[in-house]
Amino acid sequence: MKLLIGQILPYFTVTIFILGMLYRLGRWAGARIVHNITLSPWLQTKGQVVLRVGTEAFLFRNLFIYDKALWAGALLMHFALFNILVGHLVGFGFLGTQFTLIPVLGITPELSLEMSNLFGAIFGIVLFVALLYLLYRRLAKEAVKLVNKPSDNLWLLYLLVLVGIGNIMRFVPDYHIEYILVRDYITALILFRPVVHMELLNNGFFLVHLLLVQILLIVFPFSKLMHVFGMFAERYIVNRVYHDPAPDLPNVDVVAARQAGLGVPDGNTAGEGV
User: Is 0.90 surpassed by the pTM of this model?
Assistant: First the structure.
């Protein structure tokens, strides 16, 4: 199992993840938007579009308007997840001393390591609790159950197990993983060196955690989790600046629109295409 999960599968995982992402993003980029589906009221400038997409992407503006309880749970979950992902990359890269890179704070390597562990513990707990809350909503609230799908529940359960195992390795000393061990393992994989002999792979919780992460990455490009990228495209499409008033709709002054050059075709240009 150590050979399969720790040595062989990571290369398949990275390959499938990269090719899958390129395939999905390529399909989106090449898709033709036949009809203008900008939502009313239309935004007038690109700056307004950037602000709208930013607030919806990072602050979940629509959720805040329509369901503040869901907004709080979703915002906490995504914020904690983002910090954990960044914390993994930075923590393993700098061995927990990343806060020393901010010279004005005067943080020592020892304090930085303690801060890294503290923030990791806090966000691990917050993420686990937020996932539990989102799962509770899907199982307990009648309005949510009407549109809920079993696959949505399975994803939440999957993430709960993944995060739960990570928390066990953080809080239970017998299963704790040092930064240096993970960095050495990743470095060996990048350099195509054998890793089966490494002490890290003797930790059963780490092995299961690693397997779950790899399965997640393999499935990611073909799942609903792609909303993290698709949301930006969808929000831009429905919020972009729209200059073409629709002809034959009530309250549309076609003559004024033509005089302003807003794109309503006249008789001489009607045959030039859509």
Answer: no
